[in-house]
Prior knowledge:
Layout: H1 2-22, H2 25-40, H3 54-59, H4 62-82, E1 92-97, E2 102-108, E3 114-121, E4 124-125, E5 143-147, E6 152-153, E7 161-163, H5 169-173, E8 182-184, E9 193-194, H6 197-211, E10 217-222, H7 228-232, H8 240-256, E11 263-265, E12 268-270
Parallel strand pairs: 1-10, 8-9
Antiparallel strand pairs: 1-2, 2-3, 4-9, 5-10, 6-7, 7-8, 11-12
Amino acid sequence: xxxxxxxxxxxxxxxxVVAYRLDTQNSFHEGVSQIMQMLTRGHLTLPYQAPPxxxxxxxMNATDRLANVNSRLLPKLxxxxxxxxxxxxxxxxIRIFKESHELELxxxxxxxQWQLFRNYPIACFSGTLGPKTREGDMQAPEGFYSVxxxxxxxxxxxxxxxxxxxxxxxxxxxxxTGSLIMVHGGTGSIGCFAMTDxxxxxxxxxxxxxxxxxxxxxxxxxxxxxxxxxxQKEQLSPHLNFWQNLLPAHERFEKNxxxxxxxxxxxxxxxx
Length: 272
């Protein structure tokens, strides 16, 4: 671990020199962000057999991949869910917090209460805090998105993935550009959220199971946990107005664990 950290610090130093000489400030900040994520990201071990080697996996078609994942995960996944009195196929909801590199996966229990199933460490996302505004800006989005059945991609080049639905109505209202923003496997990202191969397998199966019974899986992406204290620190941020527009939905779920219906009116998110 110490050797890995030293190598990453060395890479950061080299990046600083290159960025200085080329005057590529955006590239510098992007590189710093990804290296710091590698240094600080958490680790989560799940109780499943490891995925096949990358070469074998890439040779499989989508049907064979899903059969492989189901055979390795399903028996124990049912047990993992049952320990929390949950089951595969219940409605799902995802919250992402960029600053702390967390992806929360919630399920709606039998008594219609939202219950946190698991909190996963995000291996990597590109860019810094703040929304995605254009194609090629290397930013991972912030805002309110959703996944439908057609957005699942078992044939992904990044093990398994699903498209979050960027750009949404808010993004289009602000002429934001970009596409193919995913939650996927692997440990590298360009605008997406990389979860590692073992973690995306569990996430994918739960999202797929939910979509067998519900039309969408909502995804709320925040820059950080939006407490009053944390928001106070951002009073000079150029993103403050945007983040204040995200705040009501965050507060609603924090208060009573209900997912508010979010609409877009006059270029703003609206929470009734």
